[in-house]
User: Which sequence fits this backbone?
């Protein structure tokens, strides 16, 4: 059991070489395409990528009341189904 855990916790030398080659290829491709940011995630953040939020408004304070009303409606419906099948 100890050998199995040791085996899965560490990378083999081949895995490390493959990972290094893939990182090098990705960096070369990014340099070739003109990307300046070489981090893992380089998508825009903030206002630029939030166009889908345009025209929306924040949730009001009545949201919990609507949730309670929904569950009460479901409960009443279940009660009527119970009465009909009784």
Assistant:
């Amino acid at each position: 059991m100890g050998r199995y855990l040791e085996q899965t916790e560490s990378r083999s030398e081949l895995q490390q070489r493959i990972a290094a080659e893939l990182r090098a290829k990705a960096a070369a491709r990014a340099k070739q395409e003109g990307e300046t940011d070489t981090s893992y995630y380089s998508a825009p953040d903030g206002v630029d990528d939030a166009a889908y939020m345009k025209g929306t408004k924040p949730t009001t304070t009545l949201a919990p009341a609507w949730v309670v009303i929904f569950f009460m409606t479901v409960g009443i419906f279940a009660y009527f189904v119970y009465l009909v099948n009784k």
